[in-house]
Design a protein that fits this description.
The protein has 310 residues and is an alpha+beta fold. The strands form 6 sheets. Strands 4, 5, 7, 8, 9, 13, 14, 15 and 16 form a 9-stranded antiparallel beta sheet that branches. The protein has a 3-stranded mixed beta sheet with strand order 17-3-18, with no helix packed on it. A two-stranded parallel sheet has the order 1-19. The radius of gyration is 22 Å and the shape is elongated.
């Protein structure tokens, strides 16, 4: 595949032409084995903002599936010391200056993958919180209330699942212009005890006047851990890494497993690894890579020789 970080439209075309595999793996998750992935949907809203606000413009975020690390706000007011005071109290790094009677506020956050928002902290929602606590501003108050909690509780859609874990929400990209136009994305990873239509209803209730499209939409998936191929992978992993847990896990990420039938994620990260996906200087240790080469070679040979996979 060559479209994994976008819409993965190449894989369905491959399956149509070549057929589904009996079994497949993608090295795009965590060991020992990801047998399931939460649902993942992205909503793109764009339209006229009908809210009074002192925020003239705002731009931030690198992608819907990334917790934003930087956002810049232009505030139609001279510099208010309360902005810097609140940020300093929270120990949030900012850059702030006044130009032509307006305030330019750049807020820095901590980037992370949208499936693990707890590993980061959104620069966009930090900025709205700073402004909301300095001014009585409708837009800032709304954004901080809805999006600052990454568990969906701002929209009353927070859920937790015994096997699949909690719902997570990321407001990844935003652009508001001086003429009142706004565009923003919402990325949600959700377990099986809530549906995409329920989420859509919650979002459109809050943004009834702003049109949207869904740019990405995949339902939750779950493979049977007792499949011979899954057991083969677990046993092979245990043989190479006997000190690591072998309990299968569920991911909040989106891998090729979502679009390739009969596919699971097998590595390449260990559960104790630092969360570096979608961050600057993403890396893997060379010593680890050598050990993983031995593991994957062994696993591929055994999969190729197995009498039964499914």
């Amino acid at each position: 595949g060559s479209d994994e970080e976008s819409d993965m439209t190449d894989i369905p075309q491959y399956v149509i032409k070549e057929g589904a595999p009996d079994f497949a793996i993608t090295p795009d998750g965590q060991f020992p084995l990801q047998i399931g992935e939460k649902g993942a949907t992205t909503w793109n809203f764009k339209g006229d903002l009908k809210l009074g606000t002192i925020i003239k413009s705002v731009v931030g975020g690198a992608g819907s599936n990334v917790v934003p690390s930087e956002a810049t706000f232009v505030i139609a007011d001279t510099l208010n010391p309360g902005l810097e005071a609140y940020a300093n109290n929270k120990q949030w790094p900012i850059a702030i200056k006044e130009e032509n009677g307006e305030t330019i506020l750049t807020v820095y956050g901590i980037s992370a993958h949208a499936s693990t928002p707890e590993a980061g902290d959104s620069a966009i929602t930090r900025g709205f919180e700073i402004i909301a606590n300095t001014y009585s501003d409708d837009l800032a108050n709304k954004w901080a209330r809805l999006f600052r909690p990454y568990d969906g509780s701002g929209f009353n859609v927070a859920r937790n699942h015994d096997i699949m874990g909690p719902l997570t929400l990321n407001q990844g990209v935003i652009e508001k212009t001086a003429d009142g136009q706004i565009a923003f994305t919402i990325d949600v990873r959700y377990p099986t005890n809530i549906t995409e239509p329920e989420l859509t209803a919650a979002f459109t209730k809050e943004f009834a006047d702003i049109p949207f499209v869904k740019s990405f939409d995949t339902a939750p998936i779950l493979s049977d851990v007792n499949l011979p191929a899954n057991q083969l992978l677990l046993n092979t992993f245990h043989k190479h890494f006997p000190d690591h847990a072998i309990e299968p896990i569920i991911s909040g990420g989106v891998s090729y497993s979502k679009v390739m039938p009969n596919c699971v994620s097998f590595g390449m990260n260990f559960q104790h690894d630092a969360h570096v996906a979608h961050q600057a200087d993403e890396y893997i240790e060379m010593d680890t890579l050598e050990e993983l080469l031995k593991l994957y070679t062994d696993a591929f040979i055994q999969l190729g020789q197995a009498d039964q996979l499914g």
